[in-house]
Amino acid sequence: MPPSTSPIILVLGAGPNIGQHVARTFAAGGYRVALAARSVKEADSTDSQLNIPSDFTKVEDVVNAFERVKRVFGVPNVVVYNVSASTRTPPDEPFSLPLIDFQHDLTINITSLYVAAHQAVAGPTPTFIVTGNILNVETIPGFISQGVGKSAGAHMMWAAANAYNAKGYKFYYADERKADGTAKYRVDGDAHAQLFKSLAEDKSQREWHHTFVMGKGYQKFASSL
């Protein structure tokens, strides 16, 4: 596919598991890939991969990532928000987390996500996917800042899926589970990548709260919204 017409994905948060699997899977499907993360080096960019060093505690870095990919490749067709922060607390002391750490995590988990979704709608970018987990519907001791963040992220995707569906946008909160519906702590990067590509290429909005099982796809559980 010629570079000028190939679709574009922007991955915010390019870690070694989900982020890199998503990048490779979409690249193999003919997408140009933009990776925004602290770990990437701009000098390693190629004609088909743009690296954008980014710190998601700074909302201006989120805006910059969108502006950079637009200038170099064009408006992204898909955005994946694969960034998450969690400062652990003792299991029986959820409010022992220092305020500065709580605010740090919420900037990454909520504020920067909101800015990214705002940028995507302005794009316009038709598909926006958040890498989620079970914390929007269950509590896990020690993870209060991430749980608050995931709950807020899920709410944003829910509201956006309802509000923007008629305008051609799709929003997802993707949560990999075990077959019995319980939390999966060691998630599979390739399973996420395959699902994300399927969601991106489907013309219609599927279930916004996309609980899925590796090898089976979407599964509705009692805790699914």
UniProtKB/TrEMBL annotation:
Superkingdom, taxonomy of origin: Eukaryota
Pfam families: adh_short
InterPro entries reported in the protein's UniProt record: NAD(P)-bd_dom_sf (IPR036291), SDR_fam (IPR002347)
Molecular function per GO: oxidoreductase activity
Keyword tags: Oxidoreductase
Keyword check for Signal: no
Protein's UniProt keywords contain Transcription: no
Family: Belongs to the short-chain dehydrogenases/reductases (SDR) family.
Protein name, UniProt field: Short-chain dehydrogenase
